[in-house]
Write a structure and sequence with these properties.
The chain is built from 18 helices and 27 strands. The protein is of the alpha/beta class. Among the domains are: 193 residues, Rossmann fold (3-Layer(aba) Sandwich), CATH 3.40.50.880; 56 residues, Immunoglobulin-like (Sandwich), CATH 2.60.40.1180. It has a ten-stranded mixed beta sheet with strand order 12-11-13-14-21-20-19-16-17-22, with helices on both faces. Strands 5-4-3-2-1-9-8-7-6 form a nine-stranded parallel beta sheet. Helix 16 links the parallel strand 13 and strand 14. The structure holds beta-D-galactopyranose.
Length: 648
């Protein structure tokens, strides 16, 4: 990482050409040194089939670059022009009710249509030929927020490809029937040709639903990869695709052949710790700083202004938080509010008339500070000893075979397992991620734990000294949502030295456990009680139907240990079990990030809009004020401290 970027999405196709010059002045005012362009502009790039016009775009891009504003160029494949969608109707998505979508907004394309794919390759190549080597075009974004919208596409071609996918995976239809136990309810398929894609609103087989969505995600990945291949051929700038704050479409799989992880989020503005979960997840995906490609500066306004208005000071911290946690770029959506059309009410850095909003100054302030702290930020990185599993496979299962009522996999991980660790460095990792280098691994609700050779890798890592904290409801299903017939877990019981005696997938708020070392704490959400088969009990249920049975167990394995959780623990308990000291003692509302490298230090961010405190063991210089800090330090609401250690 050489420099930090602050920017916004910019739409030159909407404005008169000479407006760009005035907008550049505004960009300077707002600290914007990068803009993302063209993700929806296919219509202007190819007004008629095979007739390309990039002149308007190049003139805007050249002016921006000449003024010192770098550019992220996007492939416009999420909005093919009307002429294309009408001439080749097979490029349009078919909805679950089997009607073909009409042309009215965006994200219409079928991801498997050969015509769509060919047209994508052509426009991507033309765009890359024109801009691939342009100095100042510092990166590429493929498409926009690509996702299996409306449960994917139900066209004949997608259905056919789905059947082939199943055939390749299960080999024979008998094997599929057996794996999904379709005999129950007499749902056996006589041939793969009988398989009909599921419709979510109906009561469909969970294995069918999970496989359908996995297939749709696979289609998306190949759709993105074929564009990436062309961009890699014609440009040296990093390529990525801006993804949403969900791991349904897996971040690891989708980014495998891409260079930079790009992320859009419109989290509730007041909940910055929740936003932090996303950043801790993005950082480990690639060995390269990630980009926030979209976040709202003011408020969201798809049809009317609603969620997301940031209280005074929150946009400043919202700009700092990703950078503290390992981003090199923060882009807001959008630079200047649209004059008409969809999303008329959306907040922006500047309103339609080109006037700044209150929050613009907060973003500009953070941008200035990034320049001031550039040496520290580019010379250090975030390293974590704690990892938290967040699996894309489980995300799919939690959507299509949830088992717990009102269950949100992301919310429970974020609120109950990540948020308590906001004063620690934590990597949130998918199951493909290596375990080496971590001391503690948390795997709650990891319904399926058999992918990527995880059982063997966990065993080896624990034997070498790792602490695995597993459960509740971990290792209970295959990746296509079938339970195990021989034991409730595939490998957890044997590894952890326990026998799961009872389980209860319903929670309540008054269940308590008693710790063998003394004290009580609250458990909730769902419960499992164990018999000990080599493990020791760390805590027993103190009330309720499992009273007297082990609720938390521990077993030493090699140089490490396995702890099994029979419920969701409260914050204090979780911190005790993790057993790693925080970056520094601090009040609840302060998030801390330790950075190390050429130098070391701590970034402290007040995230809740009230006063906070922090206690420093050594002496630090706050790079924002130049002041020396040691001992107890106070933080004002939404204050950020960038503390570089003073070497003694
Ligand atoms: C994103 C999208 C943007 C814009 C924004 C509004 O999901 O990528 O184009 O629509 O939402 O909040």
């Amino acid at each position: 990482m050489e420099k930090l970027y602050v920017g916004a999405a910019y739409y030159p196709e909407v404005w008169d050409e000479d407006e760009v010059e005035r907008d550049i002045v505004r960009m300077k005012e707002a600290g914007v040194n990068v803009v993302r362009v063209a993700e929806f502009a296919w219509g202007k790039m190819e007004p008629q089939e095979g007739k390309f016009d990039f002149g308007w775009l190049e003139r805007a891009v050249d002016k921006l670059i000449a003024a010192g504003v770098d550019v992220i160029m996007c492939t416009p494949t999420c909005t093919p022009p009307r002429w294309l969608l009408e001439k080749y109707p097979e490029t349009r998505n078919v909805l679950p009710d089997k009607t073909r979508t009409e042309v009215f907004s965006r994200c219409h394309p079928c991801k498997s249509s050969p015509v769509m794919r060919e047209k994508n390759r052509i426009i991507t190549r033309e765009l890359a030929k024109r801009f691939g080597k342009k100095k100042g075009v510092i990166g590429w974004q493929i498409d926009n927020e690509i996702f299996p919208y409306n449960e994917g596409c139900y066209c004949e071609n997608c259905q056919k490809k789905f059947r082939t996918y199943l055939k390749n995976k299960y080999k024979t239809v008998e094997a599929l029937n057996d794996a999904w136990k379709t005999a129950r309810w007499s749902l056996e398929y006589a041939s793969f040709d009988d398989v009909i894609p599921p419709v979510r609103s109906r009561w469909e087989h969970p294995s069918l639903q999970t496989e359908w969505i996995r297939f749709q995600c696979g289609n998306i990945i190949s759709y993105v990869n074929e564009q990436a291949e062309i961009l890699h051929e014609l440009s040296d700038a990093p390529v990525g695709t801006d993804m949403m704050a969900t791991n349904l479409l897996g971040y690891y799989e989708l980014n495998e052949k891409l260079d930079v992880v790009q992320y859009n989020h419109y989290e509730p503005a007041a909940d910055l710790p929740r936003t932090a979960f996303g950043y801790d997840f993005l950082r480990p995906v690639k060995n390269r700083p990630f980009w926030v490609t979209e976040t709202q500066v003011g408020w969201n306004g798809s049809t009317f202004a609603n969620c997301g208005h940031r209280p005074q000071g929150a946009s400043y911290v919202n700009t700092w938080l990703p950078v503290a946690k390992g981003a090199e770029m923060v882009e807001y959506w959008l630079f200047r509010a649209h004059p008409n059309g969809h999303e008329l009410a959306h907040g922006a850095l500047f309103n339609t008339a080109g006037r700044a909003y209150r929050v613009t100054e907060e973003v500009a302030r953070a941008a200035k500070e990034f320049e001031r702290c550039a040496a520290f930020l580019t010379g250090t990185r975030v390293q974590s000893k704690i990892a938290l599993h967040y699996s894309s496979t489980v995300f799919k299962m939690a959507e299509y075979a949830p088992m717990l009522q009102n269950f949100s996999y992301r919310d429970i991980l974020s609120e109950r397992f990540h948020k308590p660790l906001r004063r620690h460095n934590v990597d949130v990792i998918d199951t493909a991620h290596p375990l080496e280098g971590y001391d503690v691994l948390l795997s709650p609700f990891l319904f399926s734990a058999e992918e990527h050779d995880l059982p063997a890798r966990i065993l080896e890592w624990v034997k070498a000294g790792g602490t695995w904290i597993a459960g509740p409801m971990t290792d209970i299903m295959t990746e296509y949502a079938s339970k195990y017939p021989d034991a409730p877990h595939k490998f957890l019981e044997e590894l952890a030295g326990v026998y799961e005696k009872f389980d209860l997938p319903l929670g309540n708020s008054d269940t308590r456990v008693t710790w063998s070392e003394g004290g009580m704490s609250a458990f909730d959400t769902c419960f499992a009680a164990y018999d000990l088969r080599g493990a020791e009990a760390l805590a027993m249920f103190a009330n309720g139907e499992f009273k007297g049975l082990p609720a938390v167990t521990q077993r030493k394995v090699g140089k490490g240990k396995v702890i099994v959780l029979g419920g969701v623990p409260d914050e204090e308990t979780l911190l005790r079990l993790v057993g790693v000291a925080p970056v520094a003692p601090a009040s609840q509302n302060v998030a801390l990030v330790a950075r190390s490298g050429r130098t070391q230090g701590i970034i402290a961010l007040e995230t809740e809009g009230r006063a906070g405190t922090l206690t420093l063991a050594g002496t630090y210089t706050d790079l924002l004020t130049g002041k020396q800090c040691t001992g107890d330090v106070a933080l004002a609401p939404y204050e950020v401290l960038v503390l570089e250690e003073v070497r003694g």
